[in-house]
Structure formats: structure tokens, C-alpha cells
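Researcher: Here's a chain I'd like modeled. Treat it as a single chain, no partners, no ligands.
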Amino acid sequence: MKVAGLGFQRDATLDALREALVAAGGPAGIAAVATVSDKAEAGALKLLARECGVPIKAIPAEVLTGIATPTQSKLIRDKFGTGSVAEAAALAAAGRRARLISRRSISQDRTATAAIAEGDGE
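Model: Modeled as a single isolated chain. C-alpha cells:
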């Protein structure tokens, strides 16, 4: 199962989310998009999921805590206990034995990030 993890600011647009996803490798073959639970209802994310024809997986913030990511942001680490919301959400949603196939990519306006992981979906 291939999952795109997304981290974004509340004011991120559909264009910013799409740009980050394309930079991470694009939507081809993804089974879901994932993000931290408190942003799962964001309008731009819902539009992206609909555009890609996939569901949104909401990952509780406490699940993200402690997930090792190759990208390290001090701000994100202090807030969520992981280095990258996009990478951690992708890994958590992809299931056991998940591995990143695309590290975090950032939209040009720096409001959205995306990473892609692949796992067994369980």
C-alpha cells in the first residue's frame, strides 16, 4: 500500500498541497493521503483527496510521536515529537514494515510538505 503523507499550514491551498505531492513523486498509485488528525478536515486536503480519488487517513498526533524520520525540523519535533509530519504520517498510514519511497518535498510557498511511504497496509 502506497500512502502520501502531508504536512501543511492551515492556510495552505490545494495548489500548494498538489505541488508538494507532485514534487514527492505524484499521486500515481497512492491508496490514501494521510495527515495529523487535527488537519484531516481541511478543505484543501479534502479537495486533493477527491482529485486523487483516495481517502484521507487521519493520524492522531500521539501516534506520530517517536516515529523516526530522515528529515528533522526542530519546530515539528518540538510540537509533534517527530522530525516531519509528512514523513511520519505516510509511514504510520502505510502499515507495518512501511518504508519511505520519497522523502519530504516542500511546496514553493513553503506551506505544504509531502512524502510517500509504502507498506503492507495493516
